[in-house]
Amino acid sequence: MANVYDTLRADIVAAMKARETARATALRTMDAAIQRAAMDANKPIDEALALATIRKAVKNLSDARAEFAKGGRADLVAANTTEIGFLGKYLPQALDPARLEALITEAIAATGATSKKEMGKVIGALKQRPEAALIDFGAASRLVQARLP
Question: What is the value of pTM for the model shown?
Fold first, then answer.
């Protein structure tokens, strides 16, 4: 099975052949960001680097989309939504809410956290889990805060 970066590169070629300029531009920009991240880290492009870079780009686009919505820029909101859609295809599916709740319950029990002051321990325990790449830590943080007194 091809890794995410190889799939992205193949999709760039397909988008260019299909003359889908918006998609090709978004994917080329992501390709350049991944290559830049690899050069900055002075290591080869691997699955983890590609996914981390794509996640960061999607988060930045989501934040920008929220700001554009506040500013009443519907055209930029639509453009960012489209680009997030293109890039979202390369990210693994997030954990379902029930599984995330179960992981948080396990982490709270494992760390013995009893107050919000110990929230860092719980999040740290979640980051050590094999499923950490699939966890939305923003949602996890809100759930942990709701659980701890």
Answer: 0.69
Q: In which residue are the tokens 């050069």 written?
A: 39
Over its length of 149 residues, how does the chain's per-residue pLDDT go in tens digits?
368 888 989 999 999 999 999 899 999 999 999 999 999 989 888 888 888 888 889 888 888 998 998 988 888 989 999 998 888 888 877 777 788 788 888 888 888 777 788 788 888 887 777 777 677 777 778 888 887 77
> Which residue, 71, 88, 105, sits at the end of a domain?
88
- The phi-psi region of residue 19 (left if phi > 0; otherwise alpha if psi is between -120 and 50; otherwise beta) is left
Residues 66, 42 share a domain: yes
The 3-state DSSP class for residue 32 equals helix
What is the token pair recorded at 141? 């943080």
Q: Exposed (0-12), middle (13-18) or buried (19+): which is 149, by Cβ within 10 Å?
A: exposed
**CATH number of domain containing 131:** 1.10.10
